[in-house]
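CO-FOLDING WORKSHEET

Operator: S.A.
Ligand of interest: pyridoxal-5'-phosphate
Run index: 438
Mode: holo prediction, single chain
Checklist:
[x] sequence pasted
[x] SMILES validated
[ ] output reviewed
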Amino acid sequence: MKTANDLRQEILAQVADYYLVAHQNQAFVPGESRINYAGRVYDATELQNLVGAALDFWLTAGPETEQFEEALRDFIGVREVIPVNSGSSANLVAISALCSKQLRHGLRPGDEVIVPAASFPTTVNPILQNQLVPVFVDSCLGNYNLDPNFLEEALSDKTRAVVFAHTLGNPADMDAIMSFINQHNLFLVEDTCDALGSKWGGKLVGTYGHIATLSFYPAHHITMGEGGAAYTRSRRLAKIARSIRDWGRDCWCGYDNPIDGKCGIRFEREVPGMPGFYDHRYFYTEVGYNLKLTDLQAAIGLAQMKKLASFITSRKANFAYLFENLKQFEEHLILPSWHEKADPSWFALPILVRDDALFSRHDLTRFLEENNVETRTLFAGNLLKQPAYKEIKHRVIGDLPVSDFIMRAAFFIGVYPGLSREKLDYMIDTFNSFFKQL
Ligand SMILES: Cc1ncc(COP(=O)(O)O)c(C=O)c1O
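OUTPUT RECEIVED:
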């Protein structure tokens, strides 16, 4: 009779065959095949890992999640990684952790948080959810990051934190930002959802602030479908973040759950204000959620982690190739710029249509889309112009002209590792055709 392991090996071998027949890349037909701005890049290993995890049937966060946590920790070189179910959840966990009552000097309702107006919505939403007050500043033209020149003006006696994303993988000016953070003793949350592998001054972004976040949605540097992580060098913040992720419970047991708990006194815990003992697993010190990852996702993530270094190389090469070939259109378009200390692991290539161009963003993106080159606007543009944010409590510094310009004229195209040289050339040809017909 076949053992479980024999059967498993047979199934996984069949999955590899299935990948070859059903998933391996279809031929690219210029003009007919769609060139997405991003997408999953995977081989049989991702499918085999997923099926393997399904056969194990752990389902929730378990051994695969623990291994993924370790792989990510090693890559970033950070002490604590807290896997969660999305980048948005990672931002919620990160900012909520800074609001913990367990931190004597944590953030409190009414405290102000400086954030760029041109942000991804769920970078800002946890600020609102925690009753903090966002103070919106403008971004840099062409660089799309928080403009540090506005930081001093944004400062008040209520300012306690700065939160921002390294936009599309382009590192923000960490020298200016860290000097402001240190001078005023503020918290810093770095949203690196689009910037896994980006460096400033040779050091990975996300390792500058108190806590940082990642997304593993398919558009991002690695994917597991849905998924994300918060990471920090602080053991204390990590314990709080895990608790917020895991219903708010105080217990820090993982999936390998010893009878008396990792604390050793699971059933002999005293709850303040309650006579006798209470099971530590059901002892809550945070107002939490359930934002856990599943082992099915983590198993895919483990295969992706092995490809991460080559993904980053490929993103940089694709960006460089497109950038060089789009320079000829700079009379009409503003191409992205980055600081000499920045080494971006690009998420995408952002473009601004100049105000004096003879065409609008709509004209250009419509042409690209009709020719099967996918585009995206730079997320929400100026968040304050979006209906959901009309009535939020906030402060704003200046008129946000760059954020408005981004909203009016910016879009981005892909640089992800799934773009072959043939596809990149087709993208450039499509730009050429647009400018020829002007
Ligand atoms: C900068 C930034 N932050 C946060 C997120 C949210 O990540 P998720 O889609 O995994 O919730 C995204 C999503 O693309 C993002 O680009």
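REVIEW:
DSSP finds twelve helices and 15 strands in the chain.
The chain has two domains: 51-296, 307-436.
[x] output reviewed
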